[in-house]
Amino acid sequence: MHSADRLARLFLLPLFLFVAAFFLLPMVRLVGVAGSGPNGLAEYLAILTNPRHLATLLATLALSAAVTAATLAIGTVVALFLARNRFVGRPLLVSLLTLPLAFPGVVVGFMVILLAGRQGLLSSLSMGLGMGRWVFAYSMAGLFAGYVYFSLPRVLVTLMAAVEKLDPALEEAARSLGASRAQVMRDVTLPGIAPALMASGAIAFATAMGAFGTAFTLATRIDVLAMTIYTEFTLNANFATAAALSIALGLITWMVLALTRNFAGSGVAAAG
Amino acid sequence: MKPHRLTFAFQLTVTLLACAFLMVPAGASILAGFTVNYFRGVSSGLTLKWIGEVLALYSDTIALSIAIALGTLGVTLLIGVPAAWALARRPSRLTRLVEEVVTLPVAIPGLALALALILAYGGIREFRMSPLFILTGHVLYTLPFMLRAVMAVLAAVDVRTLEEGAASLGASPLQRFFHVVVPNARGGILAGALMVVTLSIGEFNLTWMLHTPLTKTLPVGLADSYASMRLEIASAYTLVFFVMIVPLLVALQLFGRTVQGAAR
Amino acid sequence: MNRGAAITVASCGKTFADGTRALSPLDLDVRAGETLVLLGPSGCGKTTLLRLIAGLEAPDAGGHIRFDGADVTALPIEKRNVGMVFQSYALFPNMSVIDNVAYGLRVRGMAQAARRAQAAGVLEMMRIGALAQRRIDQLSGGQRQRVALARALAVEPRVILLDEPLTALDAALREHLRGEIDALLKRLAITAIYVTHDQAEALALGDRIVVMRNGAIAQVGTPRDVYFRPADDFVADFVGVTNRLTGTLKNGRFETAAGVVPLPQDLVPPAAPSGPGAVRLLFRPEAARLASPADTPLVFEVVQVEFQGARQKVTLKDPAGARILVEAPADGLLVPGAAVGLILDPARISLA
């Protein structure tokens, strides 16, 4: 089918041109700028050698790990519950839980402000109960809540699909062999959804590493990598550092996703 | 397997809490958008004043967001659908590599992408100042979703055999593409289109860096209002955003399986 | 309709991009108007050969395909004017039945009214005119099969290629449609190449059968040739069950552990029997008749009886332990361990 091959090449051309012009070339430029600052190529290592950047990197990694763990834990419980039970209102519950799937980071930040900000629901609730005023929106805790909010719907969609795809006969077989509920969970159910756990966990992690909108809305004072890059670029006009940090950030998220995909075997991608 | 009663209670509690965590702030935001004074509560009365102010202040951002979303959709359809077919028809190591490179923009934080775009093209003033600059970023970011959605559906309906069927009847490659491939991929194309529009309307990470004072999109305006406006206006603005995006999200849920398979 | 094309396949091999050899270079002549069946187990290369003839694959360098003498090797399928019925039918779900059938005419530039009329005619011929406006997902398996055939015939092809067209259907329907296809192909006198792994289909449909194995041709012949005079053990076993008895030839008789078989005059012994025990007698289960041990010099012991309603399958063994399978009417009651005589139909035995 030679003629079809020719058409296929023609159809790929616009994609190639677009990606080359607006992705590959800018990336090359980014790498070039990162190495052309006053520190030269050493700028690439700034994320490790500069104590302030290193602290930011570690804080971001810790935050992302915590977000991933929390999201997966909640997501697994909810997914198992929703996949195994049929009740009135279940479709609505599923809809509500997955509705914020594409809320942008800024809006999620605003949700956290409404929940835990100065005029937030938790603030008035705790005041009403006489327990002082709970305000944590503008801190790491707020960012944590925001990223969990952001990632939970995505993780849920993936995990629910995985649980529904599990063959119930496997669990029945394990029980017929005498396994307790806990053993079935440990030996059959969780291994069965492990690829989905890894895939969605990787997305949650990568998203938390690179997300910018939520942090931007909550406060510019929280030291996470994305905020540092933003401040270096816009406020300090320190292009080389911003570029080098961006490259480091991009490499980390890309590696997490690529590694997971090798293990979990399915397409994995972060979202904004 | 029916869960244990205690397990059931625990799972139910977690599920309801998770739902509350996601929905209560959204509900509060909607309410605040209609409340005369949110600090004093609903007792202060309900009003449409804030919505009116938002429309007066920010209608240009709403219009620009819609325009950019439609433009992004047009470009991703034009580039993405033919390319998805070309990539899906003969999977090889080369097409895997192309797919990998093309989907990289999804794996790289928007901030880094935006920075790269600015460093490469920021010097071209007309381009930098025009909404096309933002559109370029949005296409870069959403194109992989269109590609994946269409490729997934092409693999699922075994479009190759259909093409062979059409070829055996004498159809040329271009005829096969328009008569057989596109009609049978329309589920994936629709799902991809919904995804692209949804993502474009809500995109902030790239857009915040790419925008200029004259090219502000809805999420950029939102960030502005969160930082500088009273809570009621910010809420009303968010409400406007919800009104735009929730129908899209509901439609996406209807195509959930296709998109989920595609966008992962 | 037009008479079919004669097809010549000349030293066509196929090696796929990943290095797998699907087909060793082979030659094959398909006569105009005949129904040729490509028969073999999965992976034998029969579908690859069909796709080469169709133009869906290109042969390795050196291979040529000719339709009525004209070289079509470089032509893609859309320029070969073939009709093809796919295993999955490949009906377009985005078109109605009539639009599917008219599609080949549409891409040939025929006006809508004319092509609809012609397609409706083909549907009538296949007796599915009532389905014209249906969507594909509203059709049963058998109806899809008929639509696929109608679609392939609507363009009046020079040759029709059928890739396991009945495999997706259940057994009863398969047999029924097999009869319909047979009648249709005979009536149209079109050249047809029919791929199947089902020997019953091959025997029923083929003017000639090509038995394939490991990317090569094992035997070409009429159904009777292939069934009663298989070229080798592979063909014998693939086309039905074959019993084998080992023995020697003496005075026009075959002597084996279970006794003696008189041989007909015209049966040709194998070219070079290399000593005692080297000759094998081959026969099908239905070529044998059970008899009282007193009435025949060939006696076996009953091992197993499988009752199948009107008939029964009986497994026998000779004193040397060799087992054979025969079919018999289910009236006689047989008990494992009993002795039973066997009479072979001299017209349906062969030596190897």
UniProtKB/TrEMBL annotation, chain A:
One Gene Ontology biological process: transmembrane transport
Membrane topology type: Multi-pass membrane protein
Signal sequence residues: none
Keywords of this entry: Cell inner membrane, Cell membrane, Membrane, Transmembrane, Transmembrane helix, Transport
Keyword Transport: yes
Highest taxon of the lineage: Bacteria
Domain ABC transmembrane type-1: 57-260
GO cellular component terms, A-Z: plasma membrane
Family affiliation: Belongs to the binding-protein-dependent transport system permease family.
Name of the protein: ABC transporter permease subunit
Organism: Xanthobacter autotrophicus
Automatic annotation (TrEMBL), chain C:
Organism lineage: Bacteria, Pseudomonadati, Pseudomonadota, Alphaproteobacteria, Hyphomicrobiales
Record's protein name: ABC transporter ATP-binding protein
Alphabetical UniProt keywords: ATP-binding, Nucleotide-binding, Transport
Record-level Gene Ontology MF annotations: ABC-type transporter activity; ATP binding; ATP hydrolysis activity
Protein location: Cell inner membrane
Membrane topology recorded in Swiss-Prot or TrEMBL: Peripheral membrane protein
Family annotation (PANTHER family): SPERMIDINE/PUTRESCINE IMPORT ATP-BINDING PROTEIN POTA, SPERMIDINE_PUTRESCINE IMPORT ATP-BINDING PROTEIN POTA
Similarity comment: Belongs to the ABC transporter superfamily.
Presence of keyword Protein biosynthesis: no
Main localization (coarse): membrane
Superkingdom, taxonomy of origin: Bacteria
InterPro entries registered for this protein in UniProt: AAA+_ATPase, ABC_SmlMolc_Importer, ABC_transporter-like_ATP-bd, ABC_transporter-like_CS, Mo/tungstate-bd_C_term_dom, P-loop_NTPase, Transp-assoc_OB_typ2
GO cellular component, one term: ATP-binding cassette (ABC) transporter complex
Residue ranges of every copy of the ABC transporter domain listed in the record: 7-239
